[in-house]
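so i finally got all the pieces together for this one. its two components total, 590 residues if u count the protein bits. some of the lines might not be protein, just check the labels. i wanna see the whole assembly predicted at once instead of chain by chain like last time, that was a mess tbh
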Amino acid sequence: MAPSAIAAAGTGSEAASTDYGDALALRERRFAAALLAPAFLALLATTTFPLMFLIWTSAFRMDLAMPFTNGFVGFENYRVLLSDERFWSSLLVSLVYTGSTVALQVVIGLALALLVMDMKRGQGWFRLIAILPVVLSPAVVGMIWRTFMLAPEFGIVDFLSINAGLGSQNWLGDPVLAMVSVIAIHTWQWTPFAFMVLLASLASLPEDIYEAARLDRASAWQRFRRITLPLLRPAIVMVVIMRTMVALTAFAAIFTVTAGGPGTATEILNLYAYRKSFTELSIGYGAALAVALLIVTIIISGILFALRRAK
Amino acid sequence: MSARRLRSTAVLGISLAFLLAWAFPIIWSVLNSLKTGSDVLAYPPKLVFSPTLDAYRDVLFGSGSILPNLISSMIISVGTTIVTMLMAIPAAYALARLRFRGKKFAGFYVLATQMLPPVGIIIPYFLVLRNIGWIDTYQGIILIYLSFSLPFAIWLLVSYFEDIPFEMEEAAYLDGASRLRTLWRIIIPQVRGGVAVTIVFVFLNAWNEFLFAVVLSGNTVRPVTVAMFNFVSVEQTLWAKLAAVSVLAMLPVVVLGVVAQKHIVKGLTVGAVKGGGRR
């Protein structure tokens, strides 16, 4: 303790590093440890421990339907995974689903925020209505859309489609339409989130820059391109990061609408891992798929965070 | 001038169309829940009809009542909220206010735990809970809900703790108050608002959770988000009842969302990595 005290005194940065100060610091550390302990024990037990156990499980063949074949298989599950066509197709579905829903949310959310920002009356209505989809359970949203909106010859979307002369469509039974539908549902639920965040950031932009731009006779498009967009960039990137993480692990929003079908048309990687584990009961292989999803998540978030730092 | 008016009319039209698109599925569910079994099937869909509460009476008090499931949801959500807050408030205070080694790492760890996909948590947890007989129990579900509610609550609370001035604590210490007493009497009253907002969000996320609930629920503990699928899986879908159940499942979170309206954006963006809970 003494050398460190001298070192601290030598730099002169810490006036309180006397014995008394050290005793206080020690008490503060102990207090902090006591306050943190319950939450961190719970987090270790509910996140870190499952992660370890998940990786361990992925090295086993663990088939609840055929327990006599169970046993340690090392990297076998991963070798199977790499040549599993359903894995690659679910990864592709994941990327399409995530990419399109996030892009749609940001574009529509930003456009709407720009429209609403200049509104003198009625902004309150937009803020109020925008809350509604966001607070709902994706399971309830999926259920409502699957039935009251999309059911053939019953749902409103089908009703509109018939009246528009497009005829009744099997919205969730056709592979392409099913994919479009689940993308539309996710976009419907979460665009209000992008809208609210971007509206709040737009409101906080400095007014005088726009004044100067107007004096310079910059067009509306130039003002948007040269001022608004660069200033909004941090908020947009944040929305993209947050929504990407959620879309990658979306479950209820697809499970309740198509359950991954028809066939595997809307089966994102997350859903494939679930189906493998809890429907087909191949838990070991399901665990390997979950690890693959974690790796994909880490890679994508790594790219996005690099993007955030880059200029 | 008329070009300008045309533009503002177009802007208004587009905005209203979006407003309607967001509100409609919810309004439509409410309307359908107030119809009779035959009105709900009418084609073209009826916008005007004589409303009835029959569907609600059926789903709440008829056979196959949804009431036990609503109670299940309530117990799970309230339980999760209480346990989460008891752990998150002290942890958030320590992260926001105290000096200790490894503080940065601790904060990073809380954020990083949110990267783990839920399906990666539920596979091992299912195996463990099956072994100790905790499938279909409240403690099993509440414990696993901590995996997403705790990191979120801690980060949201840290942002509120950071807003209070240091002087308040220092004055209390100088008066000889203990640290715990200071935390309880001086600090927590200062962040009452933040605690209330956090409670709203934790409750909301617990109420809305689906994946963990599907895997871990059974005949004793089955929240309403899972149970409502009984109304579609039978031979014919009972549309009016299904609408009534959806509305009942939406009601608590919509009320909370509207009440906490001003704080929603902050709550949704906290942590800047994920936040907003698990969807």
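Chain B touches chain A through 95 residues (CB under 8 Å).
The radius of gyration of chain B is 23 Å.
anyway lmk what u think
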